[in-house]
# Entry
Amino acid sequence: MLPDPLDKLDICIVSWRMQGLLRGCLRSVIGRPEVDKIVVVDNASGDGTVEMVESEFAQVWLIANAHNAGFATGNNQAIRVTEAPLILLLNPDTQVQENSLSKLLGAFKEDERIGGVAAQLVFPNGLIQRSCRSFPEPAALFYDATGLSRLFPQNSMLGRYRMTYWDHRSRREVDQPMASALALRRQALDEVGIFDQEFPLYFNDVDLCYRLRQAGWKIVFEPQARVIHHFGESSTWQVRPTAVLESHRSLIRFYRKHYRKRFCWCIYAAVLAAAWITMWPRASLAWVGQWLRGMARPSLPL
# Structure
């Protein structure tokens, strides 16, 4: 009997200055029977990541970039050298738990129109992370920005952007899960394309999920596939003020790409104006917070 092609997957990991956590991530997937190839893209970390992978994980396919190419470009580099019919995008600050890979693979076998399966992300203490959102349509953003979603978190309309009405304990179709542990069907990627590199850091996963859903592919959240996520340790949090700016810019790019003709011009313009107006105050607060954290650190003795 020929082996089932959906019994194997390739893993893509893009890393920047995450040497210690990347080691733990690789140890959690090395030797798993479901894994065919593991590709690590290092975005010029300069922290010994390349040397660590070369010396400790010789079986890993390593791509060492000369500069930080970003999340989207790094994942595209990795995807292009994979061959399996299923691909798992994995953050370097994650650890895949026992049997989780088989649960991800099993979900794809249930429906040939499932293009993506997201794992349940949990904190190291076991608490579930709310890792799925709806697409950032104007009404959803309005309810979130005005605080209505926090006042009425169990209301499926008011809380729909962050899906606060759902406890992330049941399987369901979703719009946009975090790409920290997201498995994708190669056939779906061949149809809609890989990551849009115009979204280097944020909204690249949202854009990809949106294109998958528009093409009729399903994206499923699988709670039985559990992945520990050291949220807050990733590279985006290491440069948080800049990340705030890029998040707003990417939302604007997303609207220009997908929503320019979908909503009336006044609603479209209002969302873009709000994104620009709130971008700099949020970034300024992040810079102040970063400066205060730096001041609070004890100085090393000479």
About this structure: The CA atoms of residues 3 and 107 lie 17 Å apart.
